[in-house]
Amino acid sequence: MAGPEKTLAIVLKTQKWSETSKIAHLYTRKWGKISVMAKGALRPKAKFWGHLETFSLIEAMVYKKQRERIHLLSQCLLKDAFGGLYADPERAGYGFCAVEFLDRHTLEEPNEDLFEWTVYNLRMWQKCSGLRLRLGFYEYLLLSLVALGYRPAIDNCISCGKVPDVGKKVMFDRDGGGLICRNCATEEGHYQVLSAAAYDRLKNAVNQSVDFKEDPCPPQSVVDEITETTESFYGYHLGGMRLKSLEFVRRIAGPQ
Ligand SMILES: [Zn+2]
Predict the structure, then answer these.
(1) Ligand 1 mean position, distance from CA 155 (Å)
(2) Ligand 1 centroid to 93 CA: how many Å?
(3) What does the pLDDT profile of the chain (256 residues) look like in tens digits?
């Protein structure tokens, strides 16, 4: 067996394996999603104690075993526990949505953009609440889809290429994956109408010209449109199943 290799990783979830060991599912910077055995993690004073918790960013030393599904974690160092997420149930809920998303839609395949984007958001959400937090989550989801290769055609009509008029409402064709202009729209199509403000924010987010920390949060009606568009785009392209953790967030956040 070759020596251990070092990678940064986000802990997605863990499960007890034996009286003293647990298995951790990690989203790593180097390999994408992998599972590791943490021997002795459940012993008091174990070297992994307290580090293998959902959301934690760790530096992991992993013995990668060829053709095996579970690798061996030899050491881990806590870089950030994102404790601020646990301080508020809604934040924790969105954090669980993010790890559920990664667990569901990634493979053992590196994606540094997605890794860095997730770390950035977990860090940022620790200071957010309410509408700002919800916007943060949906922008996370949108750009995670982009990182996985599902980029909405947001700049011009998917059929004729026409660029929408500035300051006007636009129509979004979820099934087609982007904007559709009046001339190209058909009667059978299901389109979502987006206000100019929601369209601007979505377009800028997809094109990564939003400063997610500094730019002000748009009003609730706009966040609602972004929520709906992103959710339906996600549902259509990745199986139509909603994230279970979102139901939890809905329950604790009350009517939105
Ligand atoms: Zn068109």
Answers:
(1) 12
(2) 39
(3) 578 999 999 999 999 999 989 999 999 999 999 999 998 888 877 777 678 999 999 999 999 988 889 999 999 999 999 999 999 999 999 999 999 999 999 999 999 999 999 999 999 999 999 999 999 999 999 999 999 999 999 999 999 999 999 999 999 998 888 999 999 999 988 899 999 999 999 999 999 999 988 899 999 999 999 999 999 899 888 876 678 888 888 888 765 5
CA of 220 to the centre of ligand 1 (A): 29
Q: How far is the CA of 161 from the centre of ligand 1 (A)?
A: 6
Helix locations, the chain, DSSP H: 83-86, 89-105, 112-125, 130-147, 196-206, 220-237, 244-253
Q: How far is the CA of 171 from the centre of ligand 1 (A)?
A: 10
- Taken in order of first residue, the domains within the chain and their CATH numbers are 5-81 (2.40.50.140), 84-253 (1.20.1440.120)
Give the chain's largest Cα–Cα span: 67
What is the per-residue pLDDT for 255? Answer: 58
- Distance in Å, CA 230 to ligand 1 centroid: 21
164 C-alpha to ligand 1 centroid (Å): 9
Dihedral sign computed on CA atoms, order 235, 240, 246, 251: positive
Give the Å distance between the CA of 156 and the centre of ligand 1: 8
DSSP for 158-212 reads TTT-PPPPTTS-EEEETTTTEEE-TTT--TT--EEEE-HHHHHHHHHHHTT-S-T
Q: How far is the centre of ligand 1, averaged over its atoms, from the C-alpha of 144 (Å)? A: 27
